[in-house]
Amino acid sequence: MKTKESNTSYEVSPQNIINVKGLYMSFGENNEVLKGINFQVKKGENLVVLGKSGSGKSVMIKCLVGLDKADKGELYVLGKDIAKLTYEQLNSIRLRIGFLFQNAALYDSMSVRENLVFPLKRHSKNITTNEIDKAVMDTLKDVGLEEAIDKMPSELSGGMRKRVGLARTLILKPEIILYDEPTTGLDPITSKEISELILSIQKKNKTTSVIITHDLACARLTADRIIILRDGVVFMEGSYEQLEQSKDE
Description:
This protein has about 250 residues and is an alpha/beta fold. It has one domain: 3-Layer(aba) Sandwich (Rossmann fold). The chain contains 8 helices and 11 strands. A 7-stranded mixed β-sheet has the order 1-11-10-4-9-8-7, sandwiched between helices. A 4-stranded antiparallel β-sheet has the order 3-2-5-6, with helices on one face.
């Protein structure tokens, strides 16, 4: 287990799929959110990020995909220096990264099938109808929702919407998935199902994941490693078992 002090020795390494060193981010003069974040994510690893509301968790993952631009620091994703990419290069990197939002962010006017077809047609110009149909069914099978293919989002439960949101992310076969509070608003049984689904996707697709959550049960089940953000830095790092034994209040 590492504390904030031992975390300062991080070096950017090409062996990691995500490298973040000395990341600072402010909103205005008096609102410094990130104050020198350091962390790395290995290929195929599930990294869980814990921290109180306002600790900078969501800002941090927005920086990873260039939605927020950091004030300073080193930020390498898939071997690319995010700060130096052109708009076209950044979009190319984003195609290799999946993002599951808190509310699943489905298009309400589209069926489940149409929600999955939309990103495929947008980013795979030469794909055939047969290839689309197969990709949609295979991906829905991965999340256990083949029977919901023609339903509208309004007909789905919260857990089912999360699964469809995850299916829409998976259909482009991302190398990295960023989960923003994947179990928020779900009952304990459904939360456990979503957490188990995150694990099965990691094993089947060899994806690398960053999981932001307040759900300790989700963290316990999904994390290979956990970092805790406090006061704008990585305050503590380790496995769930290591952090559980910490005497820090």
